[in-house]
Write a structure and sequence with these properties.
By secondary structure, this protein is α/β, with parallel strands linked by helices. The chain has four helices and six strands. Strand 1, helix 2 (about 35-45) and strand 2 (about 50-55) form a beta-alpha-beta unit.
Length: about 100
């Protein structure tokens, strides 16, 4: 019988997301953006990540601002009300991240 102990978000991020990982986030569109996982990535200061997502909303922008991201493969980074993510825009303009636009 498997161990019934559930893993915390912090334990899961630590165990399954090493620096340099490619992570698909927001694949369930706006209603399923995994903010708790993204905020744990920032708390643990994960780095050199590639973010992949069809709709990335503000979570991708937060991860870029936290210095966790080297590359983004997405169709959108920002918020439908505020427009392009501010951290994302600065990073693109400065050349500090690579973007594969879909």
């Amino acid at each position: 019988m498997p161990d019934s102990k559930q893993m915390t978000m912090a334990e899961a991020i630590d165990r399954f997301v090493p620096d340099g990982s490619e992570i698909a986030l927001g694949c369930g569109l706006e209603t399923c953006i995994p903010f708790s996982a993204g905020h744990e990535l920032m708390r643990q200061e994960k780095g050199h990540l590639t973010l992949i997502g069809p709709i990335s909303d503000i979570l991708f922008d937060q991860l870029v601002g936290a210095g966790c991201v080297d590359r983004i493969r997405a169709a959108w980074v920002g918020n439908v009300i505020t427009g392009s993510g501010y951290n994302f825009r600065r990073a693109v303009e400065s050349g500090s991240i690579d973007v594969e636009d879909h």
